[in-house]
Amino acid sequence: MDTERTNAQASGSGRTILASLAALGSVVLASTCCLPMFPFIFAAGAAGSSAFFAKARPFLLAASLLSIGFAFYQRWRAKQCQCKPSLFSTIVLWFSVVTVLMFFLFPQVIANLVANVLAR
Fold first, then answer.
1. Cα(115)–Cα(119) distance, integer angstroms
2. Residue 99: its pLDDT value, please?
C-alpha cells in the first residue's frame, strides 16, 4: 500500500513539473509573437503624451518657477533663523535654476539635443 502511494506521489510531482514547463514554454512562444508590437505601442503612447505636454508646458513652467521661488524663500527664512543651508542643497537649488532657465529660454535647442542623443 505504501509503495502505491509513493509511486502516485512521484508521478504527480512529475506531472507538476511538466505542467510548469509547458506553461513557461507557452509564455516564451507567445512573447516572440507579441514583442515586436511594443515599439508601436510605445510610439503611440509617446505621441499622445507629447500632445498633452505641449498643452501643459506653460503650466509646468509656471509651477517650476514658483517652486524655485519658494525654495529661495525657504533659504532666506533659514538664514533669518541662523540655520545654514547645506552645500548639497545649494548645489541642487542652483542646478534646478539653470535647468529650468535652459528649458524655458531654449526649448528647441534642448529638444534637438535630446533627439540627437536618442537617435544614436
1. 6
2. 92
Q: Where are the domains of the chain?
A: 2-119
Are the C-beta atoms of residues 110 and 102 closer than 8 Å to each other?
A: yes
> Which is more confidently placed, 9 or 69?
69
Classify residue 31 as exposed, middle or buried by CB count within 10 Å of its CB (0-12, 13-18, 19+).
exposed
Task: Please list, in sequence order, all residues whose beta carbon lies within 8 angstroms of the beta carbon of residue 93, skipping any fewer than 6 positions away.
Answer: 68, 71, 72, 75
Nearest CA to 50 among 107, 116, 117, 120? 107
pTM: 0.56
Burial of 65 (0-12, 13-18, 19+ CB in 10 A): middle
pLDDT-based confidence at residue 5 (cuts at 50, 70, 90):
low
Give the pLDDT score at 114. 86
Number of helices (H), then strands (E), belonging to the chain: the values are 4, 0
